[in-house]
Amino acid sequence: MATVELKGLGKTIGQTPIVRDVDLAIGDGEMLVLVGPSGCGKTTLLRLVSGLEEAGAGEIWIGGRRVDRLPPARRDVAMVFQSYALYPHMTVRENLAFGLTLRKLPRAEIDSRVEEAAALLELTALLSRRPRQLSGGQRQRVAMGRAIVRRPAVFLFDEPLSNLDAALRAQVRVQLQQLHRRLGTTSIYVTHDQVEAMTLADRIAVLRAGELQQVGRPLDLYRQPANRFVAGFLGSPAMNVLPATARGQGGELRAVGDGFALPLPAGAVAPGRELLLGVRPHDLSLVLEGGALSGLVEAVEILGWEAFVQLRVGGNAVLVRA
Amino acid sequence: MTRRTSWPVLVLGHAAIVIATAATLYPVLWVVKMALSPGQSFDASPSPWPRVVSLQNFADLWAPGSAMGLWRQLGNSLVVALATAAVGLASSATAAFAFSRLRFAGRQASLTFFLATQMFPGTMMAIPLYILLDDLGLLDTLTGLVLVYSTTAVPFCVFSLKGYLDTIPRELDEAARIDGASSWAVFTRVVLPLARPALAVTALFAFLSAWNEYILAATFLGDARTFTLPVALQQYVGEYHTEWGHFAAGAIVVSIPVMLLFFALQKQLVSGLTAGGVKG
Amino acid sequence: MLAPLLAVLLTAPRPVTLWHSYRAQEAEALQALADAFNRSQSRYALTLLAIPYDAMAAKVSAAIPRGHGPDLFIFAHERLGGWAEAGLLAPAASLPDVFLPGMAEALAWRGRQLGLPLAFKTLALFYNRALVASPPRTTDELLALAPALSDPAAGRFALAYQSGDFYYHVPWLLGFGGAIFDPAGRPELDTPGAVASLRFVARLARRGFIPQEASSALVTQLFAQGKAALAVNGPWFVGELPPAGLPWAVAPLPIVSATGQPARPFLTVEALFRSARAPDPEGARAAADFLVSDASALARARTARQLVANRAAYEDPEVASDPVLTAFRAAARDAVPMSSSPAMELLWEPAQTALRAALRGDDPAAALAAGERQLRALSLPPPPKAAPWASLAVVLLAGVAIVLGWHRSGRVPERGSAVAYAFVLPAAVATVALVLLPILFSVGLSAFHHRPDGGYDFVGLGNFVDILASRGYAPAEPLSFYFTLGVTLLWTAVNVALHVTLGVALALLLRAPWLRLSGVFRVLLIVPWAVPNYITALIWKGMFHRQFGAVNGLLRALGLPSVAWFSHFATSFAADVCTNVWLGFPFMMVVTLGVLSAIPRELYDAAALDGASPFQRFRHVTLPLLRPALLPAVVLGGVWTFNMFNVIWLVSGGEPGGETDILISQAYRWAFARQARYGYAAAYSVILFLILAAYALFAQRLMAGREARA
Ligand SMILES: Nc1ncnc2c1ncn2[C@@H]1O[C@H](COP(=O)(O)OP(=O)(O)O)[C@@H](O)[C@H]1O
Ligand SMILES: [Mg+2]
Predict the structure, then answer these.
(1) What are the structural domains of chain A?
(2) CA distance A115 to A138
């Protein structure tokens, strides 16, 4: 029921532009993951959508309604904060019910929604505790519960897993995925963790210094990054990037660089162009002789389930999955 | 962090605190001595212990026809001080919230204004305030006195509370706003409950400022039935002669409720008065 | 229905109110007379209200012009001139010829009888019959007796009296032929007789015949314990002496041998004044006549041992057989009615300054010359009247400049401001109505001169010019405005620094994990906060007494010489600071405790793991977090200290010679101790305010900077 559309959204604090001219359409029920390095403006963008921050330019539409002049309360969004922001003076039950009491829902309705959310998130036994009596994971679930009970048009998540340890994070990630499938609520999910991005997203939007770099399905972004930044940001270890020049050699187009010459699809670029060749370590494999690239082994990283070898090819270091 | 503290540190530390406490209490013990010594003289000897102990001075305070009818004045003082604390808190809490949480044109200027009002010497405001109260028909009334005390209490309360509110994480009210809270709801249901220690301490200060004040009360109250405790107490200070015993006993009577409040609010006193706070 | 009601209304006694500052027996006697008056007739009901003595004069001055004053009030005659000029007093209807000579005359002003004498006060010589068989009749006899009776090291003195109080010095001054007014009626100080009188008391002090820095309490204590053989004191002294066991008697003051003249104390007449605004003059008159009648006087003399002003009372056998009453009655013959002229008010301060300087050992002639100079400076004529238009233009221009500056500083209104304004409204209304209006009133007042007759003259910026010109004192001289300003700044800086240092140090100690009983110490350390400071300040003053104070007692116990605390600027200032630090450190301590409790333990643990020593942890963890959090408290504390009137007034009182006065105590003097120069005092307040406002702006910058970084 709720789509989110951002049109030419911008925000400047002081003289510094924090978010620049963002156009983005999120479909109903879609989970859009917003990724980017720390400080690139993800939180700010989310706060613009929630109404905590006033947009400097552009429009925000939620469910076909223009909301950018409305206070947060009237935008019908729920947000899960990085620090959870649970009300310390309220019990878990009161935390969950707070938004509903403010909206003056009938008592019975509130109770049933709270019970339901609590059951869903395994919080039932904790309902009468205060936030300070909860573990990190429990707090995180309360924060999510607080969003769920509201049944808003849009969920906004700001790095909700970043305060959990690695094992817990993986576990909650899966739960989140199931939750989203079950509730089907339009969501914007901010993270700097690409695993979360790849696993949770219907689509990923990559932000850099306040500007949108590319939006698309995870694999599309993985396979067809629009620029070097996106290419380098997604995938681990990062993609190998080799400078080269397109040359026609004996009717074939080749990318010629320092110590290699690789074939290019015919007509892909005009001969003589400077190129950046991106190759993921996983798309290369090691052979003893006759490979497309050849070089000396510089280092070997063995992780157990896989291993990487770093080769020196001319002046470049190239990482290869062994 | 459970390394043992070396004994010189222990000894020196305890010695320092004992000396500081002794120096702090010494003048107070003198007040007690004068109150407990029979007679009205000011004993200048260095010993803080009374030679003879008598409760006569305290009994005199309650004696019929004494300068302090005492119960009545105790009641007046209590009413005035409580009302000052209530008015101070009630009218400053919203302002403190606005200064801490809302951005608006003139915010900085108004903050400066509130600070600036603390700077006009109170002693010099007696004359204009007298005229003002008179025009309002509030001379000789406890209501008028409460208004006068509120003038200093309100700006102070604004500052004290704002300092504390600044330490409450902003995300809490943002969460509440997204949950659907208006500014008023954020204020009443999230910020105020969290500010309880600061409210207690701020109220205590407002209470104290009214409880101990003498000059303005003496100027504005012209009816013995409205006298507050300090005014009654000051009657023991004459033109040529001060009744030190009564004065000291009265001072102790004035101080006891404050001490009790200190005891009762000990915890809040420490946590509620960050006056600025530590934010990461 | 209506008729009986009307009858009741018509016959209900009409109220007549009387304000007084009497205590104990005198108050009881007065109450008995009021009851008698109410029984004697049914038209008026006289009710009494006891007002603290300290507050009476200010209250009368404020209340009567606005119609809230009493019908009658009792006060010493010394304020008569000022009140008469201000038109507060109604003339007496008739003056019965029943009073002792000089009493009624003291209450005449410009040919009108503006009060009726009730009683009088003056000084006489009390002596301990166990120590001196007969009182000295001359100063030579006194000097001859004194060495045998004095041993300052043992705390024994021949004579005890409040030597530093000008009122007690007047008998010597006049006895030595000194004067208080020159033939033209202007106050004067530097006369040969005055020099001689100062030489005399300086000698008494130097030889250890009299105690130093004698307060009334000390005089009582010494005489009551038999450690002073003689005391110069008034009738109130009787009530302070032990009821039994001390063989004392009263005699007239000795004759000054150098001149052959008796030592002449001031005569103060306690008068019954009738307000010019009394709604029912008839009733007030009736009550007044009743209270000053011979019968009433006799009752007062008998029950309260009051020194009544009526001749007839002293012929009563019971009164005549009272040695104290008759002795004072005799002493009154040599007494001189204190001048009630407003000019007299100006004399006290410089006279006292000179007197105390001489007692400290300064050259009497030089001390008097300095006093005379101060007297001249204080009595400079008010600023000339100014044309309102010129000043109005200046004010308007300043206003425009401020508004423009405001505009230029580029304040952009933000959305959602309406809600914020609603939140600020209650506090703003309260503050604007009750603080801003009085402040504006004072600012307006600062452009006027308050005449002794209660009227105001517009003088424009004259008051400010006058203040900034320091009344002829060079900037570095103790009595100049700039010196006082410097003292004020120093006072503020030293106090705040000590408050913070001590507060932080004690808070750190209290938070130390190894400290036992920290809860107990914490409560005990905030006790200074709970006791009203107008009493603890007096205690501190006592503790700094030169001969009997606890501080010097401690110094002596440590083998150190004792210090005359209020004789030098540095030590007097130190005494003030000490008191104020004692009063103020608990606030900083508690603030610091609050901040410390908010610092997460992990920060210390982390620092400790990084190998930081306790001191390094304090420097690099505690201090950086403490500093911004303490800033608002420091700013407010600075403001409070800057205007801390009570401590200066009650502890050093500006001693020596006004050097430790700060701006607010100076302003107070001008308003309440120097001829009610309200406009001048208001100008002082405005200057104070401007200084603090500049400080506030600066502090605001600091705090705003911190907010932005947070
Ligand atoms: N109130 C503010 N004032 C100034 N700069 C800010 C403010 N809030 C955020 N920024 C800046 O905006 C940029 C984006 O911040 P943020 O949206 O929190 O980034 P992210 O969430 O992607 O890490 C950062 O460089 C940050 O320093
Ligand atoms: Mg962020």
Answers:
(1) 4-233 (3.40.50.300), 240-321 (no CATH)
(2) 16
